[in-house]
Amino acid sequence: MNSPLFAAPSLGDRSREAPRVRQTCTENRNESSMWSGTEVLDEANRDADLHHVACNLVKKPGNIYYMYRRESGQRYFSIVSPKEWGTSPHEFLGAYKLQHDMSWTPFEDIERRDAEINILDKLLSRQAALPPCTEPNFQGLTK
Asked: What's 20-69 look like in SS3?
């Protein structure tokens, strides 16, 4: 009989792998706090808050918006950067890019976030072909 194309690990294999997987996940979490529950909640709250900022134009994903505060305290988005204003009439609070998933990326993180999105796009668009199989293979699924 031919060698199996796919063999599911036994429960014993999985139990030996679990600590290593857990350790790898912990190490990755320590390297990048992106998966931190509080950070995810903070980003979601920030995004919700930014979606409520006044804006007199239709927000389109992929564009950068500049947030200012009027003397009255009202925050608003503009497509005009502080450099383009010259002397800004209002206090500049920050710049954000509206992503296609309608999340907001702070200006200083745009390059990193775009790189992450490009990597994900490459992975998701890559064609993966399974080797041809003429018969079902249940090896490893039964004793």
From this structure: HHHHHHHHHHHHCHHHCHHHHHHHHHHHHHHHCCECCCCCCCCCEEEEEE
State pLDDT tens for residues 17-29. Answer: 444 434 444 455 5
Report how far residue 78's alpha carbon sits from residue 61's, in angstroms, rounded to the nearest whole number: 14
Give the whole-angstrom CA distance, residue 75 versus residue 26: 39
Residue 69 CB contacts under 8 Å (≥ 6 apart), including other chains: 75, 76, 90, 91, 93
Max CA separation in the chain (angstroms):
79
Choose among 57, 53, 84, 58: nearest CA to 69.
53
Distance between CA atoms of residues 142 and 60, nearest Å:
53
Taking only the tens place, the pLDDT of each residue in 94-117 is 999 999 999 999 999 999 999 998
The candidate with the shortest Cα–Cα distance to 94, out of 106, 110, 79, is 106
| CA separation for the pair 80, 89 (Å, rounded) | 12
